[in-house]
Amino acid sequence: MDSISQFALGAGLGVAIMGRRTAVWKAALWGGIAGTIPDLDALIDHGDPIRNMTLHRAASHSLLYLTMLSPLLAWTVTRIHGEAVHFRRWWLALWAALFTHPLLDTMTIYGTQLLQPFSAYPFALGSMFIIDPLYTLPLLLGLLVTAADRGPARWRWNRLGLALSTLYLGWSLFAQAWATTAAERELTAAGVHSERLLVIPTGFNTLLWRIVAMEPGGATYHEGFWSPFDRGRPIRFDRYTSDRELFNRLRGNWGLERIAWFSHGFFRVERRGDIATIADLRMGQEPDYFFRFDVARWQSNPGWLEIPYRISGSRGDVATLLRWLWPRMLGADLPPPHTQPSSTPDSRGG
Question: Model's pTM, two decimal places?
Answer without folding.
Answer: 0.93
